[in-house]
Amino acid sequence: MFGSEGPTLRELTVQALSSVEHGYDLLAPKFDHTPFRTPDDVLDSVARALAPLGPFADGLDLCCGTGAGTRVLTGLCRRSVTGVDFSAGMLDIARRRVRPADGPGVAWVRGDARALPFTAAFDLVVSFGAFGHFLPRELPGLFAQVRSVLRPGGRFAFPVFAPPRPRHPAYWLLLGFDTVMRVRNALWRPPFVMYYRAFRLGTVLRELERAGLAVELGVLPGFGRRADGSPRARLVVARRADAPPAAVSPRPAE
């Protein structure tokens, strides 16, 4: 379906009828040959944007998959880089593909992002393309976990792309995908949580601040602007504040 090296329609169907964890175990050997992998131009743009904020000592790639984001961290962190994912299959591929000849040491940990097995050990946490696997009600707990593994002043960074407008075919494609997944999860167990339209920037910014993270919103160059002048790609950088988490005034939804 995605070329000769990508998964077939049958393989994708089997994956979609599995749990999220087992589905990614099955998809892992062919994951990098699908559109689900974060493109290199996005990874490179994020790396360039984060470089001036360093140097960083220790980095964490949250929901690392096959390690594309982990490779970005090896160019930003001096001492250590850790990839964490709950799919053993994805971690196995990552171990084989991310082997820097020099630079920081790389470790792989199987774990759930909602219950991270770390203390405040990282200066930089990144994540690429994983947030569709978390329901909106899970964001407060997820961001609290991220804050707990950041050192004071540490940063949590991830790219966000503007959703397509209704007149764009991609809008209806994503709407259709999410609708199919909701029907599938209503009729089939275990659920497979993956929704492209549930991760809304306004809600995300509010929950980051409620978790005790001071948020800066930047622009990723190279991806253009929409007709209204707003950027197509942004970089969210949330810094661990020294003050404890507190309720904040709502931001306007975007």
Structure notes:
The chain has helices spanning about 10-15, 20-25, 40-50, 70-75, 90-95, 140-150, 170-185, 200-210, and strands at about 55-60, 75-85, 105-110, 120-125, 150-160, 215-220, 235-240. The chain is an alpha/beta fold and about 250 residues long. It has a single domain (about 40-240), classed as Rossmann fold. Strands 3-2-1-4-5-7-6 form a seven-stranded mixed sheet, with helices on both faces. Mean pLDDT is about 90; it is low at about 245-254.
| CATH class term | Alpha Beta
Largest sheet: 7 strands, mixed
Low-pLDDT runs of 5+ residues are 245-254
CATH architecture: 3-Layer(aba) Sandwich
* Cα Rg: 18 Å
Structural class: alpha/beta
Mean pLDDT: 88
Question: According to CATH, what is the topology?
Answer: Rossmann fold
Helix content: 25-40%
Q: How many helices?
A: 8
Domain count: the total is 1
- List how many beta strands DSSP finds: 7
What letter string, H or E per element, gives the SSE order?
HHHEHEHEEHEHHEE
Q: Outline, from the CA principal axes?
A: globular
State the end-to-end distance. 34 Å
